[in-house]
Amino acid sequence: MQTKIKALLKEKNALLLAHNYQPPEIQEVADLCGDSLELSIRAADTDADVIVFCGVHFMAETASILSPDKTVLLPKADAGCPMADMVTPDALKSRMAELGEMPIVTYVNSSAAVKALSTICCTSANAIAVINSLGAAEALMTPDRNLARNTAAHTDTHIHSWDGYCPFHDALTAEQVQQIRSTHPDALFMAHPECRPEVVALADAVVSTSGMLRYAAESDATTFIVGTEVGLLHPLAKAAPGKTFLPASEAMFCPDMKKITLADIVFCLESMTGEVTVPEAIRIPALKAVKGMLELAR
Ligand code: 13P
Ligand code: SF4
Question: Where does ligand 2 bind, in terms of residues with CB under 6 Å?
Fold first, then answer.
């Protein structure tokens, strides 16, 4: 199946992008695996005619916002992100009316329509830098309440948060982390910024998924407690061979990130189905918010 995918990618001049949480067999066949920021940067900068996005819907949508002339395929149409569904354009408009004029900083885990209402986007890798670049007295961060609270600790800007969350990161408790620490006192704890503030307070590193890969590879430590989705255990083992990675909780499993199979990739490339597009009236304002973030990353 992997050989077939490689041949189809060549035949269609297609690029296969995979998020770090994707199943190992998909990561193995991808042209690039990465965190949300790295995948957005790559989607914006490719000569390929087709982008096959192995991740969830908002990621394919972001690729289409950035590269409207490319065919962006999501091999499973219903691979979504529950957190992205926790904010709608209408609800955001009401909150904006309540709060008055201030920048809206939207996590990429959101729909194109919500991005279109936003001042700028951010990812887990750059939320603090994005907020501080605005120099604003106040800002609304949406949809992740945990990312908002964790960012608020690193800025003078007063952050208003939206009440969204990742069900799998938000479920991790400080007690669970302390429990593992008690049996592995030398282990370093890496937390994703989607975790609750009291969990993040226990962390040795608060980083994106790719940030965890770099941190584990560069650290002198040999054992790590991994405070993110368990799919990261595969690239961690490759990035830091011989080191030990303990999931902070086996329940940190995102079913949407495991929906795509190798057979789905073959089917979508053969039939060129599963295209994700964004209407121009939404794409243009959404592009402004995504581009603002990418320019900052550069
Ligand atoms: P990053 O890979 O950008 O850290 O994002 C994690 C995530 O939840 C993606 O859905
Ligand atoms: Fe969304 Fe959480 Fe799944 Fe990421 S891990 S796609 S934030 S539900």
Answer: 56, 81-83, 109, 166, 168, 229, 254, 256-257
